[in-house]
Amino acid sequence: MGAETPLHTSDGTLTPIEESDMDSLFVLPLDIIPFTTPALRQARMIKNAHLRSVIELFSDVSTGSGQVEINDLPKLMPWPEDEIHPDLVIARKLAMLHSYDVFSLRIMLRRIGVPVAEQAGLQLTPEKNQELTTYMTQFTRPLISQIYGGDETVKVERFEDVVKLFRDPDVKRARQRLTQMADALGIEVMEVPRFLEDYGDIFLSLSYYRRCLDMLTPLLDVFIDSMYEIRKNYQMRQDQNLLRSCDMIETTINELTAAITGRFENFDRSTKTMWENISAERFQKVKDLIQAYHVTIGGVLCGLTVKMNAWIRLFPRPTSGGPVKRSEFIMTDIRQGLENITRIEDSAPMLAQLE
Fold first, then answer.
1. pTM tops 0.85, yes or no
2. Would you say the C-alpha torsion 78, 84, 88, 90 has a positive or negative sign?
3. N or C: which terminal CB in the chain sees fewer CB atoms within 10 Å?
4. Rounded Cα distance, 26 and 101, in Å
């Protein structure tokens, strides 16, 4: 399924955020993990509304989602009863991850010792890369400006265009460009392609997370407005536990989004500082800084997106459900597991800035 941006239709309906599996924060296609059990390789691991990881064996509009708890897998799989199957061990490790976006997975799969069928498979789809073009432009422009200055013959619209500059059919011209960049970075010419690969990937990750936040924001706004309406309802105002929960949930959401936004601003400042005196070493510091927060940002965005998707699916329009039904869902599904997102944020390293 291709990416869908949440938007209002003519009747005010909001759609949840749905991405292709490899572009998703909350879906892990298990065919990239070398399981020995065929049924697992054909399934997906997803985060449910309570932020627990479950195995989704099938998903269809008419039949719904067939979900299995990780610890229930031995009842369904053809595994020996007298021993713990290696695939169950791997599934339990995967279930502990906070997000299934490709950038978090690259870090966490190595950390927990789970291999992938093909490391190159941890990539966004070409469609998602194209969608992120406008986000990447702000990182492409200073790169070109630094190396080529006012050369109006250099036309760049996408990051791929930067790479193409060094594959010019004119060998002499291509070599000159490579030399220019190597000199600016203080590295050898042969190291330039690797720099470009690292540069493109690290800022692609930043573009991806920003896009995720941009898609999530309208859902958060709608949800917070809904809680405001519940607080105004005469019947609901009598439930002090509900009111306290609504206050806690709104405060938590605001604090989490403010923290993510603050990190993006820090990355922007660090990137700007990097270009004031560019070198391979300074780029490495920026890269390390951004990568240090992949797991945190991915985990927070994953948790909030799953929660808001659950809300929008049940209440896609302002008139969907009544205050009682909405209040019950807040108490049973939205509140459950929200503290896990806060723990992800609290466990993040202290914000640093490139000096």
1. yes
2. negative
3. C
4. 7
